[in-house]
Amino acid sequence: MDHNATTPVRPEAQAAVMEALALVGNPSSVHGPGRAARRIVEDAREKVAELVGWEPSGVIFTGGGTEANNLAVRGSDRGRVLASAVEHVSVLDATPKVEEIPVDESGVVEVEALDSMLSAGGAPALVSVMAANNETGVLQPVAEVSAVAGRAGALMHCDAVQAAGKMEVDLSALGADMVTLSAHKIGGPAGVGALVIANDAPVAPMIRGGGQERRRRAGTENVAGIAGFGAAAEAALAGLSDFARLAEWRDRIEARLAERAEIKVFGSGTPRLANTTCLTMPGVAAEAQIIALDLLGVAVSAGSACSSGKVEPSHVLQAMGADKAEAATAIRVSLGWDTAEQDIERFISAWAEVRAKMGGKDERTAAA
Ligand code: PLP
Hints:
Elements (H helix, E strand, L loop, with lengths): L10 H11 L10 H20 L7 E4 L2 H11 L4 E5 L4 H4 L5 E4 L9 H9 L5 E4 L13 H10 L3 E5 L11 H4 L3 E5 L10 E5 L14 H4 L7 H16 L1 H5 L1 H15 L15 E5 L5 H10 L5 E2 L1 E4 L2 E4 L1 H5 L4 H4 L2 E5 L6 H18 L4 H5 L1
Parallel strand pairs: 2-3, 2-4, 4-5, 5-6
Antiparallel strand pairs: 1-7, 6-7, 8-12, 9-12, 10-11
Helix pairs in contact: 1-9, 2-9, 5-6, 11-15
The structure holds pyridoxal-5'-phosphate.
The site of pyridoxal-5'-phosphate (PLP) has 14 residues, from helix 3.
């Protein structure tokens, strides 16, 4: 139940990886084996491009979503970087000078605030707003944000790592100049991702020393990883309508837990990914829930991060104005392409068991 962290590698992707590993060639070599490897990379590029409705020539393969976000933020080298307060840390920490765009209590970016931040003037800007949040699943009005960014002459980047393969993502409709993708969130291997660049947006390489990836990312391509990414992209695109049906199970989880306790579901009043829910178990620290659920064979993650021994609610929930104590009891449950109905029932009964054992107690007692 932690597919937003990583989702199982799809059989098609496993097969593509194995097939690519059996080859010898370097895609930059002009001989036969080199050309065979190049073919694999270019086939995958087409499939990844299709996932976001763009041309293959815009796809720059990277070593994952984190690297693609860094490439977008640092490679575009704008004087100002404005990012939503709920972005993944790979955007927020990519450069020290990020200005945070506030979100409302549903976790949706405040477009008017962005507009006034941009009209304050200053250096040319990059705006970075994600398509869907990894912790809450909340969707952002990216097209609207792009329009505001475009009017101010800013470049627009969208981290679509969690949205791609889970809902339709169309680069033109988003109006973005750059879109980040990651293979292991859609059923490909970890450690491979892409920055899809539209209309030749100006992005300088971070990794230099070779002409690969149109001079934007030097180094011999991860042929097997890229092959797996391509196969996963194709399968995820074909499975979009199945994925949308996960909303029914997510809603069932929320409804059944609400019968047992006064839970809070973050972002529940606004459009969200079909597979994600971020919810509280009143009075029980997220860490205690995770350990207890793990003992029952159920994997979820926390809506909070542990820094220097002190559990702090996540920056996402804090930006949404969440009460700190309440946010410290939030876990993220995320379903995936291979989730079965029995997983939902098993989660609900495990949650009820943990709640019966720990519910309502002081957090420290519960954790002990
Ligand atoms: N962006 C978002 C929204 C994510 O959820 C993640 C991973 O959790 C990343 C970026 C980073 O991707 P990767 O794990 O491929 O580096």
